[in-house]
Design a protein that fits this description.
The chain is an all-beta fold. It has strands at about 15-20, 25-30, 35, 40, 45, 65-70, 80-90, 90-100, 120-125, 130-135, 145-150, 175-180, 185-190. Strand 1 and strand 2 (about 25-30) form a beta hairpin.
Length: about 200
């Protein structure tokens, strides 16, 4: 339990909200920071297996807000969730969610526009995404507003009733944690006092 002083420091300019140990041994770091080792790197940092900073990834680019959650998909890709627009040439193409290859290359074909921050994300058994957060649904008056199901390309799924959610009106306050168990069931945590 002693502090390992043989690695770092990484000189991150703000709080770290989430860590992900990827299948290839690299460590993804998400948070509310703008600089890493004195270089601009909005919201994300990638550490190699030896804990050195991957300066060829995310340095000089990044999000304009915090990355709150990270999740690795079955195909190895990484989903970053938070309260941000991901900076691309000429536009903010990714709002609240962005997808990357396992080696940190952004997937510009994954375009998501949610109405509020995404605080949790988990892959469903069919490859779709369950996202929790603020009122993230496209219909902000919907009782399902704190949970949304997205297709693999990032579009919002219009067949929520097909998952049995027509009888599952969702949470009555923000969802901040999602975990899929080995049997396929989903644990949901947050600031709500009613679910369903």
């Amino acid at each position: 339990g002693s502090l390992d002083t043989t690695v770092g420091p990484w000189d991150v300019s703000g709080p770290v909200h989430t860590l992900l140990l990827a299948a290839d041994g690299q460590i993804w770091v998400g948070g509310d920071f703008s600089f890493v080792k004195g270089k601009r790197s909005g919201g994300l940092m990638l550490l190699a297996a030896d804990l050195s900073v991957r300066e060829d990834r995310f340095i000089g680019v990044g999000s304009d807000g915090p990355v709150i959650a990270l999740e690795q998909m079955e195909d190895g890709s990484i989903i970053a969730a938070g309260s941000f627009g991901w900076k691309r040439e000429g536009s903010l193409g990714h709002t609240q969610l962005a997808r990357f290859s396992a080696d940190g290359v952004r997937d510009d074909g994954f375009l998501v526009v949610l109405s509020s921050e995404a605080r949790a994300v988990v892959e469903l058994e069919d490859g779709k995404l369950l996202v929790g957060g603020g009122r993230i649904g496209s219909d902000t008056e919907s009782p399902n507003g704190f949970l949304a199901i997205l297709n693999e390309d990032g579009s919002q799924d219009s067949l929520i009733s097909g998952f049995g959610w027509d009888a599952f009106p969702g949470a009555n306050a923000p969802v901040t944690l999602l975990r899929r168990l080995s049997d396929g069931s989903i644990l949901v945590g947050g600031r709500f006092d009613r679910l369903g």
